[in-house]
Amino acid sequence: MTFEEMHHDLLMAEAPAECTKALFERVVAATHAMGFTHCAFGIRMPFPFTRPRVEMFNNYSNNWRRRYGEMNYVMIDPSVALASRSNRPALWSADLAEQQPQFWDEARDAGLHHGWFQSVTETSGVVGMLTVARSSEPVTAAELKALDTKLSWLAHVVHHAFARLLITDRNPSSDSKLTAREIEILRWTADGKTSGEISNILSISDNTVNFHVKNAMAKLQTSNKTSATVRAAMLGMLS
After folding, report:
1. How far apart, in whole angstroms, are the C-alpha atoms of residue 57 and residue 85?
2. Cα–Cα–Cα angle for 118, 120, 124, nearest 5°?
3. How far is Cα 16 from Cα 166, in angstroms, rounded to an integer?
4. Where do the domains of the chain lie, and which CATH numbers do they carry?
5. Cα(176)–Cα(41) distance, rounded to whole angstroms?
6. For labelling, which of 63, 164, 191, 225 has a CA lying 20 to 30 Å from the CA of 156?
7. 225: closest CA among 235, 215, 237, 236?
8. If pLDDT is split at 50, 70 and 90, which confidence band does 10 have?
């Protein structure tokens, strides 16, 4: 399978959520085709707000995977910190290593010496990060020039493929989309207007306002008006 065919395979992947393992195997094959032995993909959903759901996939060694989790290294990993601030692709560098020398020493002991990473952020608040790595041969300037565009494109393809499988409820289904009136009322709610004020603005009764709010809450699977408004805004439905 050619590199382009692998990308098309990832882009067109439409499997049930339990097939994320098979999808990640495709990602591993694509990164192997570009000369990297290891890869990782993490995705963070915006809900629930107090503790956003995070899913991580990688083919690192069992020891490093366990160590990374036990030490909660995601909180100090300099590449994760940089990717959370910028969607620009970047290489593991001496500057990053200096920020957490013990962390990087342990990563090298696990065979992770040279790597590239990029994050992808959706307007809905979903964030993904692809990392590719290997134990030998630094990524040269010539290699980076040849692969950077492909790696960046792969990061976006992988992100959207996993998002499609893992976040099937991030957008309402075709029969559950908010109506124009529901969106209008949630917009006024987002501006801090009460049901009574909205009824005056739109020249409808309080009961009608509340009726539309309840319908929106049901469609967005939320328990109150505030959370419905916030979720609709996060999903880009009020813009």
Report:
1. 21
2. 165
3. 9
4. 3-166 (3.30.450.80), 180-234 (1.10.10.10)
5. 31
6. 63
7. 215
8. low
